Amino acid sequence: MINLTLYKREMKSSVKLLVIFAAIMTMYVSIIITMYDPEMMETLDGFVEVMPEIMAAVGMEAGATSLLGFMISYLYGFILLVFPMVFCILRGNGLIAKYVDRGSMVSLAAAPVKRRTIALTQMAVLLSGILILLIYVTGLEIAVAQSSFPNELAVSELLKLNGGLFCLHLFIGSICFAASCIFSDTKYSIAFGAGIPSLMYILQMLANAGEEAEKVKYFTLFTLFDAEGITAGKGSAVAGAAVLAVGAVAMYGVGIAAFSKKDLHI
Amino acid sequence: MDKTDIINIENLTRDYGNGKGIFDVSFQVGKGEVFGFLGPNGAGKTTTIRHLMGFIKPKSGACTINGHSCWKESDVIQRTLGYIPGEISFFDDMTGAEFLKFISKYRGIGCNSRQKELMELFDVNPKGKIKKMSKGMKQKIGIVAAFMHDPDILILDEPTSGLDPLMQNRFVKFIGEEKGRGKTILLSSHIFEEVERTCDRIGIIREGKLVTVDSVEELRKRHMYPYTVTLDSENEAKGFAKAFDGKRDGLKVTVTAKQSLEDIFMHYYGGREDD
Predict the structure, then answer these.
(1) How do the domains of chain B map onto residue ranges?
(2) Which residues lie across from B113 on neighbouring strands?
(3) Is A112 on the interface with B (CB under 8 A)?
(4) Which of A6, A263, A264 sits opposite B106 (nearest CB)?
(5) Distance, first Cα to last Cα, chain A
(6) Nearest-CA residue of chain B relative to A112?
(7) Assigned domain for A30 exists
(8) Is the Cβ pair A264, B50 closer than 8 Å?
(9) Strands (E), chain B
(10) Which residues of chain A make contact with B50, given a CB cutoff of 8 A?
(11) What is the pLDDT of residues B215-273, one digit of tens each?
């Protein structure tokens, strides 16, 4: 199904990026979780009162009562959406399009390895990267929360929440991957692979910010990730996550089929 | 199709517009044969080879290797095929040694690899990042990568580009030895002499069309003109023979005028010149 030699090489190239993103998220996650403090909450709520649009745009709302609610407000609106997304964009482009664009795909294609196997391997590399990143974040969140505020965090709800987040990033990754497979030019691969998710995030910010712009939420897939809904076990939120997962499977399929059938001018 | 034909191309056409592409190309390469694929840059050599490698799907016509479709069963074909790409582009982040090790494992080659023998033959120094290697060294790494799994069929796209004359000679000799071991070889080039020295038959392609397929002997007869001149003294004759690479017989020296590749094309195109 996948070529292990290629998988190992690609995972090795993922390591550097994973370490960088893990470091950035470690910083934000630990700072923000340790900021949870009923008194501090008032300060943050103060910010929300002073500049409601800006705080709402990055998904931060006032009045979170529990630690998890606080985390949803201050981590799941920007940091845990954007950083894994940037990882998907960078890695997605490097997995297929860069090889084709530079011509080094020759070394991979001129071997008794099916193109489908090459694409599946590269997909597995991206999925592994996303999974490692989110598992790390989950572990980090639990560790920081437990050490700072013992027994404050609802762990099972956090797991549900991060399951939903995984579906979202699975889908974002699938867009980047499909773009990487479809376009032989990194120019276009990046334009679509980075452009579509970024545009959707900007629409999400718009939708969060203003009442008139709220309709924009129907044009962005981030809407399907409903953090509060998932922790509360709301049916619509779970369905949204399921739609993201199904969409991801479809997009990975599209990418693999496109790469298997396209002409390689290498 | 003859039973001994390994590579079989039939009416292969791929039109890129503006007269670019390949048009109705057909030829066969038999078992144990070295076939020279000759043409100027942009004539369609690489496009034809990409079809054989399964990189491009034929728009019309077909190509097979060992009876397998080059597009649908390329993974089967690749098991016994070695390929030197026209443009060498490896993984820049690896050293030569790492790259060869990677390819061996990726292809699933066991320990019966010819890698060491080939590296000695071509003086390959695989230390150092590929990014920093000279064009010639990269080319030599490409040669090792193409031959190390001892494939039966070889597709070589301008394999000597970037090699110094010494290495070119070594390569030509090596191709002769591989032919002796029964390998089927398709060698593309834009240098007539190189093909002439290694190949049994030559196909000439120009502007995407196969102009002629002929044995080297036939082409040589047709495009080389011997002249015999008589000189005044033996010393002069010796000098003349040396200077013009001729054959001396007493005072007589026979020199051969070779038509340039372009002249040969002109011959097949009736002097038409439109590019």
Answers:
(1) 5-216, 223-269
(2) none
(3) yes
(4) A6
(5) 24
(6) B75
(7) yes
(8) yes
(9) 5-17, 20-30, 34-38, 60-65, 68-69, 81-84, 153-157, 184-189, 201-206, 209-215, 224-230, 247-249, 252-258
(10) 264-266
(11) 888 877 777 788 899 989 989 999 988 888 888 888 899 888 876 656 666 676 555 44
A113/B55 touch (CB, cutoff 8 Å), yes or no? no
- What's phi and psi for A44, nearest 5 deg? -65, -40
Domain count, chain A: 1
The answer to the question of residue A222 being in a domain is yes
Whole-number Å distance between alpha carbons of A162 and B66: 52
Say if CB A94 and CB A86 are below 8 A apart. Answer: no
Substitution target in B20, B47, B53, B89 with the highest count of A β-carbons within 10 Å is B89
Fold classification of B5-216 is Rossmann fold (3.40.50)
Rounded alpha-carbon distances, angstroms, from residue A81 to A88, A167, A200, A210, B144:
11, 12, 11, 20, 46
Residue in B with minimal Cα distance to A2:
B106
Nearest beta carbon to residue A5 from set B54, B87, B106: B106
Per-residue tokens: B78: 């690749």
ipTM over 0.95: no
**Does residue A107 belong to the interface with chain B, where contact is any CB pair within 8 Å?**
yes
- What averages of pLDDT result for each successive group of 10 residues across chain A (266 residues)? 94 95 95 81 75 75 74 91 95 94 94 96 97 97 92 90 96 96 93 94 86 79 89 91 96 97 91
Only one residue has tokens 């950035």, namely A24
Residues of chain A found within 8 Å of residue B106, distances taken between Cβ atoms: 3, 5-6, 108, 111, 113
Task: Please name the residue of chain A whose CA is at the shortest distance from the CA of residue B77.
Answer: A112
Give helix A67-74 / helix A4-34 axis angle, nearest 10°: 110
Whether residue A266 is contained in a domain is answered as no
Closest CA to A248 of A215, A225, A214: A225
Domain that holds residue A103: 4-261
